[in-house]
Every structure is written in C-alpha cells, then in structure tokens.
Amino acid sequence: MTTNLGPMFQPFDIHNLTLRNRVAMAPMTRNFSPKGVPGENVVAYYQRRAEAGVGLIITEGTTVNHAGANGYPNVPQFHGDEALAGWKNVVDAVHEAGGVIFPQLWHVGAVRKEGTAPDPSVPGYSPSGLFAPGKPNGKTMSKGDIEDVVTAFADAAHDAKALGFDGVEIHGAHGYLLDQFLWEGTNQRDDEYGGSMENRLRFVVEIVEAVRHRVGPEFPIMLRFSQ
Questions:
Q1: Distance CA 138, CA 196 (A)
Q2: Strand 12-14 and strand 17-19: pairing?
C-alpha cells in the first residue's frame, strides 16, 4: 500500500483565507517572553517556520486581558501596547515570508496558582473553584467575572485583526478555563452556566459570539477543544 501525501501540499481556501498548503503548526508554549512581551527572538522563531513553508502557523498560547489569565512564567500576553507591538513584528515577519498566522487566545482558569506573575496575589478563576473534581483552587467566577472574560477574548480578537493576523484560535481545551466550563467534573454550577450540556456550553458560545461580533463575518475563528 502506498500513501499519497500530495494533497497535503495543495492550497486550501475557505472564505477569504488562502493557505499555500495544508500543513499547520500547532501551538507550543515556549516561555520566551519576559514580562509577557514577545521580542526579536520570538519574531525570528515564527519567521523561520514561515520560511520553511508551513501553511498555517498557530502561535503559542497568548493570555487575554484578565487578571487571572496567566499561569506560567514568561508566557506572552495579547494585550498592552508593548506586547501588541511585539506581535505586530511577528505578523509582519511571517507575512513577509509568505506565511499565514493566527494567535491562540488563552485563559488558564484554575490551573493558575497564587504566587504566579504578573500579580502573585491573584487567584485562579474557574466555574466552581475547582482545579479537578474534589481539588479546590482559586475562586468561583461570578457572572461579572464571566462577562469580563468574554470581553477580554473579544478585545484580543479585535486587536489581532487590527494587527494583521489572518484569524484567531480560541483555546478551549486541555483543562484550561473554557474546558473547565465544558466538563461536568469541574463545572458544578447551578445557574445557566452549569448542569446540562447546553448550559455548560454557554460560556464558550458567548465567547465565540462576542469574538464574531468584534471581528466581522469573514475573519476566521478557530475553536480548539478536547474530545
């Protein structure tokens, strides 16, 4: 039996997005952005991948503008003038090399532990104050907290489009905040965000809808989720 890899190297079109091939680079956390700002080393890293012919680059996870979004040292953020200027340099370098790039927008939820930068006093945020079933961590999100996070994702997507990114990926997987709402083991709420599958999906749906509202009908939105 022979395997024909030819289709992987054919262009792919969807709406106003064109990829030169069907090879995508998945997000990989690198911890190379002191104070959340991607520097020239980050620019060079993504530029090399574009020069090597990757069809679609999805960046490492980048944190949205919410106090509890970050959970790791030296992870890039997707807010603030200095960080966004760094990402603009990344976009320009990738485009110059013929590539296409999405940022992955991220909130770690209850994975965050107190003592983590940038503000060590900030706890983890999650649907029910649980890191895992039976393992408390951080605070249960109020409806105001939920609204703040929805807005943070929408603002980040708006900024991504303004910077020239080709789309966005929303991180809804791997036990981070959105996944914590989807999973009944960590979502034990008794309001409209918990209980049934429809209710547990509500937070993620609201984020996608808010992002779509801010970026318009044609800008690509990708949602990463765990099976």
A1: 24
A2: antiparallel
CATH number for the domain formed by residue range(s) 12-225 = 3.20.20.70
Show the CA angle centred on residue 148, arms to residues 146 and 154, nearest 5°: 105
Burial per residue of 80-89, b for 16 or more beta-carbon CB atoms within 10 angstroms, e otherwise: eeebbebbbb
Tokens of 193: 């965000």
pTM score = 0.97
Amino acid identity at 216: G
pLDDT for 114 equals 86
Catalytic center residues: 176
> Taking phi first (over 0 means left), then psi (-120 to 50 degrees means alpha), and beta for anything else, what does residue 80 get?
left
Quick: pLDDT tens for 159-210. 999 999 999 999 999 999 999 999 999 999 999 999 999 999 999 999 999 9
pLDDT higher than 80, residue 2: no
